[in-house]
Specification:
With 267 residues, the chain is an alpha+beta fold. It has helices at 2-6, 85-99, 101-135, 140-167; strands at residues 8-9, 13-36, 40-49, 55-56, 171-195, 198-207, 212-213, 215-216, 227-230, 237-238. It has a domain at 103-167. The model has no long low-confidence stretch (mean pLDDT 86).
Amino acid sequence: MELSRALTLLNGVFRHRGYAAAQAVCFCFLFEYDILADERAGGLTRVWVNPATRSLPRMASWLEETDLVDEAPPFAPGGEVDVPWNLAIPAAIATLRTELPEFLESLTRRRDRDLHRLREYYLDIDREIRRKLTRSRPSDDVRRRELQRLEATARSYQARLLDVADRYRVRVRLAPLAVLACRVPTCQMTVRLHRRNAAADAIFSWNPIDGRVETRGCDGCHAPVDAASLCDDRVHYLCGRCLAPCAQCGKPYCRACHTRCPRRHDA
């Protein structure tokens, strides 16, 4: 039942194949962030990653002092550790989207306001030039100059649009401050994912801290996925952006299978 609530497939089905108790080594990443746009925001954010199942545990209370237990560290002293940065950074960015809605909504309102004012300003200029062209019968030289003004107005409008887009573009800078590792007793569930005639196995983890199945990361961009799609070839577990249509041919393709659209595009 918990797996059915946590696993949503948009274009496929899944079958539960079994479960087993396991000891997972989870990582807690503490980031300092700066969000740069027309205004600036900053602070700290924390994400947890379970690399064994490519998932994101919810263990906010684990860092409380009363929850800590003295025991042997998950890794031998001096040993090399493969820290899953590829999962942590997309997870931190997704977390910031949920932690800073007011900042992003305010940014969107100001951007839309500036776009509206810009559009009205250039529309007034455009209408005035067109009225001048239709009000009388100008000479060829006057008509040519006004048409050039019309084209210059359109070019200026496009350039100003790019300026507004650049001013309100959100840039995120993440600086890692600390990485913690801990062992967590979990229940790992093996799931068979089916897409048309293809199938693949995936492992999901049940988290004892909150009693829920952990959100799994996209096989393409590693961002957390609430509702996933499956690719036709290798049944990758994908977010909407990693199975989006190609900008040229309009056909969706898997970004985990291909770095560019596999179809041939005629010039």
